[in-house]
Design a protein that fits this description.
- With 204 residues, this protein is mainly alpha-helical.
- Helices cover 64% and strands 6% of the residues.
- Strands 1-2 form a two-stranded antiparallel sheet.
- The protein is elongated.
């Protein structure tokens, strides 16, 4: 019984037929669905009667600390640097990001860590490759480049640009590099990428 094993966590079972409005609110589409809520906010969910998946969420998202976030981030870096295992690194970075986002005031108190994790995840998607992963890369770059986060983060601009190049969206890639160059016109790396995009656009 998980409620006895984890006495600090409240477990609530909902009958979706009797509480249809609640099921709609949380967009329950399969049974069973486990929704994990911390500080009145959903932090993760898992579908299906997979006890290992439930335990993983309990032991990561619901029990997250900055120390556990840093530990998973380091595991991701080790997998990437030491083993070249992009998929394993991605899993660790994603776990760290989910943990971080479940912690109170993470945006104001741990913004640099949030940026680093999004950039690392973007890089892993870029390395793994394929259209879907390149689009995931762009999405995580956009999370960094939001106005209240870090709108001129060089790594995010470069990784977004590279993903756009891989997707053969040369015009958009060129505009991406040009936008950063308005902020830092003397950036040699960004200028080289802009020229590369320009050359590919002419050749396409």
């Amino acid at each position: 019984d998980l409620s006895k094993r984890y006495s600090n966590i409240q477990f609530i079972k909902i009958d979706v037929d009797k509480l249809q409005s609640l099921a709609q609110q949380y967009q329950i589409q399969a049974m069973p669905t486990f929704v994990f809520i911390r500080n009145k906010k959903e932090v993760s969910r898992t579908q299906g009667a997979d006890i290992n998946a439930v335990l993983h969420q309990i032991n990561t998202t619901l029990s997250a600390t900055i120390e556990s976030v840093q530990l998973n981030k380091q595991k991701g870096t080790d997998a990437y640097i030491k083993s070249g295992d992009y998929k394993s690194a991605l899993t660790h970075y994603q776990t760290a990001l989910n943990q971080l986002q479940s912690i109170d005031n993470f945006l104001t108190q741990h913004k640099a860590l949030l940026i680093a994790l999004h950039c690392n995840i973007a890089l892993m998607y870029l390395k793994i490759g394929g259209d879907e992963n390149w689009n995931h890369c762009i999405r995580h770059c956009h999370e960094v480049l939001r106005r209240n986060i870090d709108p001129y983060n060089q790594k995010a601009f470069l990784r977004k640009g590279e993903a756009l190049m891989q997707l053969k969206q040369y015009e958009t890639a060129k505009k991406n590099y040009a936008l950063y160059m308005k902020y830092d016109p003397d950036n040699a790396e960004m200028k080289a990428k802009w020229l590369e995009a320009k050359t590919q656009l002419r050749a396409s």
